[in-house]
Amino acid sequence: MKKIVVKFGGSSLASADQFKKAGDIIRADKGRRFVVPSAPGKRFSDDTKVTDLLYACYALAEEGQDFTAELKTIKDRYYEIIHGLELDLSLEDQFQEIEKQFKQQAGTDYAASRGEYLNGIIMAGYLGYEFVDAAEVVCFDENGNFIPDQTNEALSKRLKDAECAVIPGFYGAREDGTVQTFSRGGSDITGSIVAKAVKADLYENWTDVSGFLVADPRIISNPEVITTITYKELRELSYMGATVLHEDAIFPVRKEGIPINIKNTNAPEDPGTMIVANTCQQSKYTITGIAGTKDFVAVNIEKDMMHAEIGFGKKVLEVFEDNGVSFEHVPSGIDTMTVFVNQAAFLEKEQEILSQLQRNCQPDSIDLEPNLALIAVVGRGMKSHRGTAGRIFSALAHANVNVKMIDQGSSELNIIIGVANADFRDAIKAIYDIFVTIQL
Ligand code: ASP
Q1: Residue to mutate (ligand 1; options 48, 108, 170; most atoms within 8 A of CB)
Q2: Averaged pLDDT, 400-424
Q3: How confident is residue 1, by pLDDT bands cut at 50, 70 and 90?
Q4: What is the CA(252)–ligand 1 centre distance, in A?
Q5: Nearest-atom index, ligand 1, CA of 183
Q6: The dihedral of CA 54, 57, 59, 63: what is its sign?
Q7: Per-residue model confidence as pLDDT tens digits over 203-245
Q8: Which of 52, 178, 332, 346 is most buried when burial is the number of CB atoms within 10 A of its CB?
Q9: What is the mean pLDDT of residues 169-182?
Q10: How far apart (Å, rounded) are the C-alpha atoms in residues 41 and 223?
């Protein structure tokens, strides 16, 4: 029998009705034996996620203030689900313990993790699955770093004989028992870790969209869904701002060759997006996706005979390193070098960086160009297609977008384009149209 790990995001478990949809999905395939729930998310657009309620409640506890009302709001959210599912389940003991731990200041991570912990107990009760507390099987070291090997060992041992189990997402614990969470959205990582530990055939990640979209729906109305994407392509797109899956969620399954299927809890019949290690399936439009981020600065450094000065680039990049500013791209000319950096991070250290560049590198001039956006056009299909770059740039020219920077990775998997922030939307529209809408 197939082994499938299913992770449900917060909006898929925000209410009893959503829980029922998840339950129907799980029961529809006997292979769906391992379930990783998030905490209840938003029921409507200006609702608050339980995780955020927990953070706010714990902030009061930390200041020594009364948090009774806030904890009651959280409790009500869970009982609304329990009653809606007509479950005979009490969380009184758990809430008493949480109150006690909050008063003893058990930590922000402990507080946030209770969202998944309690939802896991409900899910296990609802499905009749075994509940496995993630604190016992997901391991962090004393500095709060996740320990993959130890976790894999503990988790595979614990789940070896489990027929069906619910493992709450988002958290684990350090050796001394202190609860520790991943970064926000981290239940995706738990799902991936569980999939690896049980050697799953498939990791299904259920959310509220029918997969990854070719472009941001806030810019393109009703963009196409990506049917298949490779891990590498996904890395490129998520790095540039496409969000659906936590960036770190691909590492545990990637090495094991376990595919991830992004699915929509509200439209389970939609095929969603398959994320795979490799495929010879051609993407429909040459490109797989477009993503971008605004607010970068180009630091242009000019120096006569720069090309003959061995180690010049190193000196420049060291200045950024010393100031803790990471660089995105470094296009260069014979006597010029440009460093693209995040604008907010740069601004914090602007004067230090500029004077250090002046001192260490003695350039002829430094020129700053702020308010730039970077757009990544990603696609495994580019390698075997002539003219992809040509199409991108003629589309941009027709849309009156001035291209400030071009960078094609040697893998021919992506082309990165720098444009003014003001041209960001027009540029993405033009690229989407040429490949997807018009399909020249
Ligand atoms: N509940 C956590 C969050 O809101 C983790 C998750 O949902 O994956 O970030």
Answers
A1: 170
A2: 91
A3: confident
A4: 18
A5: 9
A6: negative
A7: 999 999 999 999 998 899 999 999 999 998 988 888 777 777 8
A8: 346
A9: 97
A10: 25
Token representation of residue 340: 């693209």
Cα 212 to the chain's mean position, in Å? 12
Ligand 1 contacts (CB < 6 A) are: 10, 38-39, 49, 51, 115, 169-170, 184-187
Strand ranges in 56-181 using DSSP code E only, listed in sequence order = 130-131, 139-140, 165-166, 171-174, 179-181
The predicted pLDDT at position 440 comes to 56
Atom of ligand 1 lying closest to residue 182 CA? 5
Q: How far is the CA of 202 from the centre of ligand 1 (A)?
A: 22
- Model pTM score: 0.86
Ligand 1 atom closest to Cα of 186? 8
Q: How many residues does the chain have?
A: 440
Residue closest via CA to ligand 1's atom 6 equals 185
Residues 72-81: pLDDT tens digits? 999 999 999 9
Q: Probe ligand 1: pick from 54, 187, 194, 207, max atoms within 8 Å of CB? A: 187
Res. 37: pLDDT tops 70: yes
Distance CA 252, CA 194 (A): 9
Check pLDDT > 90 for residue 30. Answer: yes
Pick the residue whose CA is nearest to atom 5 on ligand 1.
185
Concatenating the DSSP letter of every residue in 310-368 gives TTHHHHHHHHHHHTT--EEE--B-SSEEEEEEEHHHHHHTHHHHHHHHHHHH--SEEEE
